[in-house]
Amino acid sequence: VKLSPSPPVLQFGFITIFVAAFPLAPLFALLNNWVEIRLDAHKFVCEYRRPVAERAQNIGVWFNILEALSHLSVIANAFLIAFTSDFLPRLLYQYKFSNNLNGYVNFTLAYAPLNYTDYPRCRYKAFRDNDGTYTLFYWELLAVRLGFIIAFEHVVFFVLRAIDWIVPDVPESLELKIKREHYLAKQALAENQEALLQATRPLDS
């Protein structure tokens, strides 16, 4: 029985790239993985033959795929937060006009031009003037959004690099055990070489 790593990688991509759109996705993925692990354990114990273990140094090319997905998820979530939420428009409106957001909803609604509708008071959500062209606030908001995306990416990548540098790939206790095993293996090999030399000396003489 050989398990393919592609379904977990697809799940990782979905829950990281679209986590800003559906924050409960990691929780459901955790519950799904817990149930699937228990079911797979029951299958391996009760229904399948014992699989042949194969030694592997790492997960191979899948590590690069997961790293690329994590970088893509940071960029996608930055765009989702910047362009689909009201966080940045509210922040810019508080900075420019009113700290307590008085008149914010009315400010975000534009009047439709008369040549596009029969209703003179038709309004829609956009930062446009009466002629339908973008206002100065729209371009300022666009610059703020792009700046937020760049800042968000740099902050997240810096935190990732800091965690990667602080947390070692191999725990210190495990590294000590590995060094101890290497030392014992070298000592056993040296003793075996001495025993072989002593066993072969009478034959040479």
TrEMBL record:
Transmembrane annotation, as ranges: 12-35, 59-83, 136-160
Domain Anoctamin transmembrane: 9-181
Aminoacyl-tRNA synthetase is among the record's keywords: no
Subcellular location: Membrane
Keywords, in A-Z order: Membrane, Transmembrane, Transmembrane helix
Pfam families for this protein: Anoctamin
InterPro entries for this protein: Anoctamin, Anoctamin_TM
Record membrane topology: Multi-pass membrane protein
Annotated family: Belongs to the anoctamin family.
Annotated protein name in UniProt: Anoctamin
Gene name as annotated: ANO7_2
